[in-house]
Design a protein that fits this description.
The complex is a heterodimer of chains A (203) and B (168). Chain A has 203 residues and is mainly α. Chain A has helices spanning 5-18, 25-49, 58-77, 83-90, 114-126, 133-171, 180-195. In chain A, helix 1 packs across helix 6 (133-171). The longest helix of chain A is centred in the C-terminal third of the chain and has 39 residues, at 133-171. Chain B is mostly helical and 168 residues long. The longest helix of chain B has 31 residues, at 25-55. The chains are: A mainly alpha (203), B mainly alpha (168).
Chain lengths: 203, 168
């Protein structure tokens, strides 16, 4: 089982705006949960309503949606609006395109047989709108699964880094962790481990 | 402010441009500083509009209450007008929000916008230069990609944080 590098880059880029928050472990966890809940609601909302928008106004509508919710969160909870950048990186705007589909690279890498490859290629050629309804429904499930995984990964990533920061800064008194430098060096170690994760074949 | 400089510098270095001119550092350097100047002008313009809105007592309360909405829409329209990336728009919104939350007068706000833009420009220049140097060195395969990029960003953040920490 090997997690793809794309997932890591999404989590990392989403975490960067998060470093601006001066939050401790608990508040960082709550903020990360809010970001992920909002991400899932956004993906579901735009998946079902994107056909209602004129093609050219879909992307501005997405950003307006983000700005309005940033304003609402600020008014209600005084949460500064940096979190919308995290949502943006977790849900790249490509999902707004009408031809949006899950990437055919598997989330958990495994060998794809020649016949499977051919069937995937055939489905790609067919296009999403020509697929029967029950297959499109399946596609949505898989598409949402990738976003759900990115969200869960992000929460785990934030909790892990907040914990490391809490221990290194408060218990061990390492000054580098009062700055983003310390966290970036920890992230470099995580990136190294992620990139070089061992590949294990099942069965 | 320093945290925002590092976060935005790294984000803009990775996703701020549609293509990276890594083999031609001179052009890349020009692009970095042109982007930093655009960033400064965009944030300063939004802050000036904000200060202008604050002059009128009738709209002052509403402008304060819906500040994020106003900043966001203005930043989005200005970014689209300049054909900038989405990351530029989000960065401009974050910067304007942080500067406005300090509640200084316009001249101090513009000064802060200048410091922030210069900081982002310096970070990106160092990052571009180090990435260019790495092109000609033998980075081991397991370290290529995100590990080495995060390491570079960490070192730059460490260096910028030591002498210039009080400035930011």
């Amino acid at each position: 089982m090997k997690l793809p590098e794309r997932l890591f880059s999404r989590m990392l880029l989403a975490y960067l705006p998060f470093t601006v928050y001066p939050y401790g472990f608990f508040r960082a966890g709550v903020a990360a949960l809010w970001i992920v809940a909002f991400l899932w609601v956004t993906v579901a909302f735009f998946w079902f309503t994107r056909r209602l928008f004129p093609e050219r106004s879909l992307k501005p509508a997405f950003f307006f949606w983000l700005i309005v919710w940033a304003q609402a969160a600020w008014t209600l909870t005084k949460l500064p609006p940096y979190w919308i950048a995290s949502v943006f990186f977790l849900a790249p705007v490509s999902f707004l395109e009408d031809t949006a589909k899950p990437n055919h690279v598997r989330v958990f890498s495994g060998e794809v047989s020649r016949s499977q490859c051919q069937s995937i290629e055939a489905k790609r050629r067919l296009g999403p709108s020509k697929l029967p309804f029950w297959k499109r429904k399946k596609k949505f499930g898989r598409y949402f699964f990738e976003r759900a995984l990115a969200g869960l990964g992000f929460v785990g990533f934030v909790i892990m880094l907040s914990l490391v920061r809490e221990i290194a800064e408060k218990r061990l008194g390492i000054h580098a962790f009062e700055q983003p430098a310390g966290m970036l060096l920890v992230i470099a170690v995580v990136a190294f481990l992620w990139k070089n994760q061992p590949y294990q074949k099942h069965g | 402010m320093y945290f925002l400089i590092i976060a935005l510098g790294f984000l803009l270095a990775m996703r701020g441009a549609r293509f990276v001119l890594l083999p031609r550092p001179a052009e890349g350097l020009k692009r970095v500083w042109r982007e930093a100047a655009d960033f400064f002008l965009t944030t300063s313009l939004i802050l000036a509009l904000w200060a202008f809105a604050m002059v009128f007592e009738k709209i002052q309360a509403n402008a304060r209450e819906y500040a994020i909405l106003g900043f966001g829409v203005t930043a989005y329209l200005l970014s689209r007008y300049q054909k900038k990336t989405d990351v530029f728009f989000l960065s401009a919104l974050a910067s304007v929000f942080m500067i406005s939350s300090k509640q200084c007068d316009l001249s101090q706000d513009v000064l802060l916008a200048g410091v922030l833009s210069a900081g982002v420009g310096i970070f990106q220049t160092c990052f571009l230069g180090l990435r260019y140097k790495l092109l000609f060195s033998h980075v081991p395969a397991p370290m290529k990609g995100w590990p080495v990029l995060c390491l570079l960003a960490g070192f730059i953040a460490l260096v910028l944080g030591c002498p210039w920490g009080p400035v930011f």
